[in-house]
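Q: Could you write out the predicted structure for this multi-component system? I'm mainly interested in how the pieces pack against one another.
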Amino acid sequence: MKHDVAVEVSNVSKLYRLGLKAEKSDSLAASAATFFKSPLKNFRKYRSLYQFRDSELDLDVEPGPDLLWAVRDVSFEVPRGQVLGIIGRNGAGKSTMLKILSRITTPTLGRVEIRGRVSSLLEVGTGFHNELTGRENVYLNGTILGMRKREVDRVFDAIVEFSGVGRFLDTPVKRYSSGMKVRLAFAVAAHLEPEILIVDEVLSVGDAEFQRRCIGKMESIGQEGRTILFVSHNMPAVTRMCQRVIMLQNGRTLLDGPPHDVVGAYLRAGAGRQAEARWDDLTQAPGENLARLRSLSVRDSDGRVSEAVDIRKDFTVRIEFEVLQGGKVLFPAFSLWNEEGLAVFAAMDLDTKWRGRARPAGTYVCHARIPGNLLAEGTFFLNTALWQWEPRQRIEYHVKEAVTFQVVDTHEGDSARGDYIGGLSGVVRPKLDWTTDWTPGAADDRPSDAVIGAAGAD
Amino acid sequence: MASSEQVTVIEPLRGWRLLDFKELRDYRDLFAFLVWRDIKVLYAQTILGFAWAILNPLMQILIFSLIFGKVAKLPTDGIPYMLFSTVAVVPWTYVSDSMTHSSQSLVTGHAILGKIYFPRVIFPATPVLAKLVDFSIALLLVFAMMAWFRVLPTWNLLLLPVFILMMVAVPLTAGLWLSAMAIRFRDVKFAMSFGIRMLMYSAPIIYSASQIPDPWRTVYSLNPIVGVIEGFRATLLGLPVPWEYILPGMGTLVVGLLGGMLYFRRMERVFVDVI
């Protein structure tokens, strides 16, 4: 193994056997027979969960219906100091890869070699015990995450300082608020000092403030030249932090390259599930006697449901609802919230066809187009409601955070961030018209055309 | 830096292997903290706290003395029944408690199991060590009882550590086997309470081992709990040490412990996949 390689993954595969279907018997005698035979059958079934025949381990043969290659022949190397992102849709093999890298499970085939002190963080607060005090949990959690006791001793004050729960240090954590617990747990995790860090989307839990701190902390670790393997759904975080991204699909490496290429491809592959909420059974759908919500989705400029929209492009919010009782004036509306729980804006239906008009029963589909270069990068949530003003103001339904989607910048230079690749603040990110007037100063400072030309070519 | 650099290799585990003691050494701080957590948490929010470590066996002893000593009048080779019972119930309480906890350790710890790696053997080993605190406290009861019945300690007492070691090996062995089984087959949990009761009757806790007919003695003594109880009685009460009851059990333990390590290590790789 080369010395400048921190992690080397060679042909790693993981095979799972899915739960087998139980046999159904159609007579009393048959079910009695099944009942007596079942202990043996159960035994075989549970055994077969992790035992595979050699023929089943052939990577080139399509697996049987009860088998699944969660990870299939994946190889990559991570040079020392690189921040690598691993992305992919649900079921692509990210989590399995993460479990293999953090030694929670073993690969079925292949080999991983990790050079250097490694910590993996799949969750904050692993092993926290409610009956123990904050102080005791810091030690317990720290050692679970791989620190020695004297290492915890050394960073203990820093952890307490960072968590801000100093006053409650000797109180059992069961008396903590959940926010305090998370803060303390995160403080411990933030003070790990591994050479190689393997991180899951720890960021998907906790409040926005917490997520921001997680990402901030990881960015600073990355800048210290440590190796990070970051498995995530959070495209803005991935593009910002990682120097290289691997996209998995069906257990295989689909793409491996610079973030904007891979994340761009991920976005184009589109079709997210979280970006659409449907209620196929109207009786279960939000709403009452007057109307019910059928579906809410976010769609890209091509009309496909998309959980990640390109920051530069228009996209559409689509609301489909069923009016059950005609004759009322109704206003569909939605509001957009960012990950910090801030309302970015709210929008009422402005379609002149239906403004102030009673709606007959039937299915209505509304589209609202949101222009590109409006929202900042990040995760957004949609709430939707149906209003009725007359005879009195009431809300037929109000669904909160029904769908979520992300706005992603692929850093190709033509978004509002220009050539800047760092973090940018702000809820909106309009692309403004910039003009510059230049008045020549002293003759010496005047750049020659050649220099300007060179800068432009850079 | 290169000198301190550690290399972690992750690959499919094949074949049989014993425990990785070097790795276990690297994780000794964690092991210590987990043991300490078990101890600390056990009597959290109780009024009596560690007094329970004495109360539980004491109640058991009183009931046994009443039923088997006073009513059934079981022969005890001339030892007062309460004393006879105390020296057996105290190690037995330890064995049964730690065995129950150890066998369920992986199932109850599955949340941690799926989130972080550390040597899996720490799971079943933790309760085995943590329960020693209860045992040490209960040992006070034994010495109090000895004082009450005016039993003077003899040189035999020096052998007690041997039997304590043997006692610890029993739940450790059982824990290695049963915890690895329990995570795949939850039947173990249901079989446990019944199994523990059976074990109690299989060892000379309420009756005397001398009541077992001679031809059966060796087979009977293959149960290591027999040896533990007989060893405790002999060393504490100053009786001759009945090695013929003890050695077969020690043999079982050595074989069982080695086998348990092999079995645990072999199953270890699939724990997470079968939770």
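A: Regarding packing and overall arrangement: Confidence is low (pLDDT under 50) at residues 451-458 of chain A.
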